[in-house]
């Protein structure tokens, strides 16, 4: 890591510590940027709607990920356990 702050932020991932809490729902995050992204789920308009079930999302990438539930597609697997 190029900076000590970078390595400290990385180490938190391995510790399981989630010091950044959402003030709306209480969910914890290991880094502030993930908390910031999460907060959008509470405030942003949900303009991306699934044609299959009608569920709406505030980010297109979340809709794309959701659509996989309907297809059953699982393009990635764990190299350690095969799941």
UniProtKB/TrEMBL annotation:
It holds the Pfam family zf-C2H2. It comes from the Eukaryota. Keywords: Metal-binding, Nucleus, Repeat, Zinc, Zinc-finger. It is found in: Nucleus. Residues 20-47, 48-75 form the C2H2-type domain. Its main location: nucleus. One of its GO terms (molecular function) is DNA-binding transcription factor activity, RNA polymerase II-specific. GO terms for cellular component: nucleus. This is ZBT49 protein. The gene is Zbtb49_1.
């Amino acid at each position: 890591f190029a900076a000590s702050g970078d390595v400290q932020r990385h180490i938190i991932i391995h510790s399981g510590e989630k010091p950044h809490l959402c003030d709306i729902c209480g969910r914890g995050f290991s880094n502030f940027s993930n908390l910031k992204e999460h907060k959008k789920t509470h405030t942003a308009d949900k303009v991306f709607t699934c044609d299959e079930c009608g569920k709406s999302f505030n980010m297109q990438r979340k809709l794309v990920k959701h659509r996989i539930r309907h297809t059953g597609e699982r393009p990635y697997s764990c190299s350690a356990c095969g799941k």
